[in-house]
């Protein structure tokens, strides 16, 4: 059974789209078909087929060569079916969204300047608050002061 997250391969497949567009022309039907086949190979963990298709273009397309190197170096991590079966998310969308909510909305306003120490303290508090553990933070902090 495939996960319902339709964006799970967005980041990984952006590179395949780029290679397809360089080889066949941006937005061409051939590029879309080639990229779709490569994405399916990635999804199905048919990495040898994916690598063979990329290697055909590696001599003439720098992006294809880069993808070959990436897959070869990281194939031990590309166990997506196993991860999905365990209920794990394989997309970076959740992390990226969390960073935007926690960090960007607080720290990147105009005329704001932060020291590393101050930013780290505010960031820790925001993480506790957004994760629903804000009271736990103060409980632990008061226990540490009593123990000291």
Characterize this entry briefly.
This protein has helices at 10-24, 29-43, 47-58, 62-74, 80-85, 93-107, 116-130, 134-147.
Keywords:
mainly alpha; single chain; 8 helices; disordered N terminus; 148 residues; 0% strand
Could you describe the 3D structure shown?
The chain has 148 residues and is mainly alpha-helical. The protein is 71% helix and 0% strand. It is built from eight helices and no strands. The protein has helices at residues 10-24, 29-43, 47-58, 62-74, 80-85, 93-107, 116-130, 134-147. The longest helix has 15 residues, at 10-24. It starts with 9 loop residues before the first helix and ends with a helix. The model is unreliable at 1-9 (pLDDT under 50).
Q: Can you lay out the helices and strands and say which pair or pack?
A:
Blueprint: H1 10-24, H2 29-43, H3 47-58, H4 62-74, H5 80-85, H6 93-107, H7 116-130, H8 134-147
Helix pairs in contact: 1-2, 2-3, 3-4, 7-8
- Give helix and strand order, one letter per element, not per position: HHHHHHHH
Strand content: under 5%
Number of DSSP helices?
A: 8
**Structural class estimated from helices and strands:** mainly alpha
What summary fits the major beta sheet? none
How many DSSP-defined strands? Answer: 0
Tell me, rounded to a whole number, the average pLDDT: 83
The helix content, as a percent range, equals over 70%
Radius of gyration: 22 Å
Which blocks of ≥5 consecutive residues have pLDDT under 50?
A: 1-9
Dominant shape: elongated
**End-to-end C-alpha gap:** 53 Å
